[in-house]
Amino acid sequence: MRRKAALVVLAACAATLAFLVGGRAYLAALGPLDLMSYSDGSTVVVDRDGRLLRPFAMANGRWRLPVTRAQVDPRYLEMLVAFEDGRFFEHRGVDLWAAARAAGQWATRGRVVSGGSTLTMQVARLMEPRERSLAAKIRQMTRAWQIEAEVTKDGVLDRYLALAPFGGNLEGVRAASLAYFGKEPRRLTIGEAALLVALPQAPEARRPDRRPEAARRARTRVLDRAVARGVLTPEEAEAANGEALPLGRKEMPRLAAHAAEEAVAVDRNDKQIRLSIDGRLQTKLEALAKAHAQRLGPKLSVAIVALDNRTGEVRARVGAADYDEASRDGAIDMSRAPRSPGSALKPFIYALAFEQGLAHPATLLFDRPARYGAYAPENFDLGFQGAVTARHALQASLNLPAIEVLADVGPSAFLARLHSAGAEVALPKDTPIGLAIGLGGLGVSLLDITRLYAGFARGGEAPALYEHLDGAPALKPARRVTDPVAAWYVADILRGAPPPVNAPSGRIAFKTGTSYGFRDALAIGFDRGTTIGVWVGRPDNGATPGLVGRDAAAPILFDAFDRLGRESERILEPKGVLHVERTAELPPPLRHLRRDAPKTIAATEHAVLKVSFPPDGAKVDLDGGADALNLKALGGRLPLAWFVNGAPVAQGDWRRQSQWKPDGAGFARVTVIDAQGASDTAVIRVQ
Q1: Are strands 170-171 and 314-318 parallel, antiparallel or unpaired?
Q2: Diameter of the chain by CA atoms?
Q3: Cα separations (Å) of 496 from 368, 391, 466?
Q4: 231: Cβ–Cβ under 8 A, 6 or more apart, which residues?
């Protein structure tokens, strides 16, 4: 028997010598080996810092995620080498001593005691699978020599880590670590690492989710070998042996699931797509959306968008409360769906009026019954507050003053501004453009309206929108929403809006919206650095009685800002802001008016004449008197006459605006008189 064993050993050595002598000729006959084929795996979508958001299975249904030795726990690599190929860093792809030892053990014991395959030979077999045979073994040895001639030891390990089988449709240590432990391989415990070292030798026979006892025995063998080789202490191995085995597989990560799907659909060839999303913030906001949706009730979903105001990059985009929950239609991306924004459009109405000089935050408006042809808007509470400032009207989200201002701005001009700012607006079919658009009578996506709100924090310019990095073009270009002064007026007003219960006052500027029929609840807020938009509703467009933006969406908005983990940033005041030191005494409110009180104000004429610009009490800085001051009025019957300090400025003017050039600093009394003799006066200070 010993004589026979010696002959086998000599034969193995002779075969190895022949391989070394004739290897080059045989290698030429085999042809080249594609050493990069291992990278042809799953497409992965990662966040801005390279953290995994969502992987996608290959066309054959298998998971093979990109991984390198730098992304794996060092203990795993040490145990892998100790168990599979103790002389890995000494041989050149084929370990002659190991091959001779394996042949001798087989000859003397009649069975395989230790394998002679090196890690490099295993890589050759994984890259070029063949049935087990002597010819296949010789081919592996030749390919191993070729591999180590062209790549480093690190390159060999990278290929093994990506290709090794781990049972089922799992290839590579990263896919296995995520599937069995729900974590990246750099965070493995010793017991987890030992199990993953053991699995590739017999991946189906040792699957912990199907054959836990076989998996446990295999793990123990790895730990024992690691102790024998000095990789682990006996105490570490004992503790690792006590770790529980995974009894099932976990779902692959699905962070930013909708954004990832969209990215892959756009670029089907790139194996790694990097988004501007911050994975940590995305995780927090997805958990927030899910928790609030469960609190709010069945069938409701939540969408959240967070934008970096400085760069226009999407930092988080939650398309649904739970991607996997069919009862909430989680597969539908509600951050992209056009929905009615309700009153969330009002800031843009006022911004356009401020920009055109038709109004100022201190301008008096009238919250009272009104009819515009067949259209008779009402406030949400069906009441009226009488004379109010534009600031109060916007903070209280009063419908009637907003429609009054929109009538002066013009609904077509307002809609044109939304379009020019880059918003994709959906209008009802076969319906003319009317004043109802100001209260949400159109559709716009949460992503679009959040971007428009970011313009208020950026001096009136909506940012170019980016979600893909690495040189990808913007989803939308930068566009003007309004001018810097009007943007600051709106931001200043909204920062003073009353917050929801238990939320801090003045931390962010924000506005809510509720669509007709209680189908959509919105809240959008911003500070200097970040804008966040929140939508709550049913993706099937069903009504939810009592679903109101202030109660449903605003608490989520403030919670989302808390997740940023920083203090709020104030928006800087631009040059040209008019500060009002005093406001004329307001007439008593009209709360006594009933819901069915007559509504007699026409769309083209206002019963009360008002100086809308400059507002009463304004300070006007005209840079040394070089500029003319715009004078604008609301209401009254044309033509109008303008006077400053009793001197006429314009007579018989058939427009509601004029100009006056001050001759020096001081107080000025601006008066306008209409064709019926009605008048209004604003006292301002020129400096």
Answers
A1: unpaired
A2: 129
A3: 23, 9, 30
A4: 75, 78, 79, 82
Structure tokens at 474: 């913007």
The interaxial angle of helices 190-198 and 74-84, nearest 10 deg, is: 40
Of 354, 370, 301, 344, the closest CA to residue 443 belongs to: 344
Burial (0-12, 13-18, 19+ Cβ within 10 Å), 5: middle
Least confident of 282-291, 429-438, 456-465, 483-492: 429-438
CB 610 within 8 A of CB 583: no
Q: Assess contact for 398 and 422: CB atoms under 8 A.
A: no
The tokens for 570 are 């104030």
Q: How big is the CA angle at 44 (ends 334 and 66), to the nearest 5 degrees? A: 165
Lowest mean pLDDT segment, chosen from 319-333, 380-394, 642-656, 662-676: 642-656
In whole angstroms, what is the distance from residue 286 CA to residue 305 CA? 11
Q: Any idea which residues carry the catalytic annotation?
A: 84, 343
Nearest to 385 by CA among 368, 370, 402: 368
pTM: 0.82
On the CB side of 256, how many CA atoms lie within 13 Å of its CA? 33
| 8 A C-beta contact, residue 251 and residue 233 | no
Cβ contacts of residue 353 below 8 Å, gap of 6+?
359, 390, 405, 408, 409, 612
Q: Tell me the DSSP string of 565-594.
A: -S---PPPPPTTPPPBS--PPPPPP-TT--
Task: For tokens 């005093």, name the residue.
Answer: 582
